[in-house]
Design brief:
alpha/beta; Aldehyde Oxidoreductase, domain 3; TIM Barrel; 2 domains; six-stranded parallel beta sheet; 12 strands; elongated
Length: about 290
């Protein structure tokens, strides 16, 4: 994965995380060390995983010690086996100890998301369906969560409410119907924005098609209904399956012929990857 997270995105997230953890000072580290010691840290995979978050991992240490070196690392999106070295950093021993938990929190969560995403992507391989994320992210960490989905081979849905139209059940109720809701969007939203409509059954699918939806989300439909929806649409617009998607059923859903499958659990129910960071002092050169 050749993508990287820009510094201006990472800086406020790291600043807030470190302030939360360190506060006015690390009582343990400041009591033990003088601040002059140098050290190295080695991040190890404790289980098979997909790496994501190297940029934010090293940036967490550099926030406290700008001279921190990233001596080696796997790339985001790379698979790591149990016991494999993910990254090695070197710099101020105090900075390594103080930023250890923050750096690991980011790396473990992001790698957990990437790992789960890769499992879903592999499960639908060969079907043509693509795995999407949702907006069910940790508040304030959406940019990292969605980056991790991409590292795992998934595709981002809209980032937020401002960059895409998704007319959902409550919008339809507020507008008084699918046709009215879509008509109002067409009149008021930029013409370049794709209009997606959530439907719960085949009757609502027909309403969305008649209203001119650019994409339809099939919400909590059973497999037979999804298969019939694909038959009726005949490839005219993309179809997205959503609701109660798991590794156990995602292949069956993909084989109905839908174009996209959105999986909220990628970010809202992720299990952090098991990664350890072993830190040791180093003798100064010379």
């Amino acid at each position: 994965m050749q993508e990287s997270l820009p510094g201006h995105v990472l800086e406020p997230l790291i600043r807030e995380a470190l302030a939360e953890d360190i506060g006015p000072g690390d009582l343990t580290t400041s009591s033990i060390l003088t601040g002059e010691e140098r050290g190295a840290g080695c991040a190890l995979a404790k289980s098979d995983l997909v790496v994501a978050g190297i940029d934010v991992f090293i940036a967490s240490f550099r926030f406290l010690d700008p001279q921190t070196e990233l001596r080696e690392s796997l790339a985001d999106g790379a698979a790591a086996g149990t016991g494999q070295v993910i990254a090695v950093v070197g710099g101020s021993l105090s900075a390594l100890l103080m930023a250890e938990r923050t750096a690991l929190n980011f790396l473990q969560r992001m790698s957990g998301i990437a790992t789960m995403t890769r499992q879903f992507v592999d499960a639908v391989a060969g079907t043509g369906a693509r795995i999407l994320d949702t907006r069910k992210t940790v508040p304030g960490l959406r940019v990292l969560d969605k980056y991790a989905v991409r590292a795992g081979g998934g595709t981002n849905h809209r980032f937020a409410l401002y960059d895409g139209v998704l007319v959902k059940e409550n919008h339809i109720a507020a507008a008084g119907g699918i046709g009215t809701a879509v008509q109002r969007v067409r009149l008021r939203a930029p013409h370049t924005v794709r209009v997606e409509v959530e439907v719960r059954n085949l009757a609502e699918l027909e309403e969305a098609l008649e209203a001119g939806a650019d994409m339809v989300m099939l919400d909590n439909m059973d497999v037979e209904a999804m298969r019939e929806a694909v038959r009726r649409v005949r490839g005219r617009i993309p179809l997205e399956a959503s609701g109660n998607v798991s590794l156990a059923n995602v292949r069956t859903i993909a084989e109905t012929g839908v174009d996209f499958i959105s999986v909220g659990s990628l970010t809202h129910s992720v299990r952090a990857a098991d990664i350890s960071l072993l830190i040791s002092p180093e003798q100064p050169e010379g």
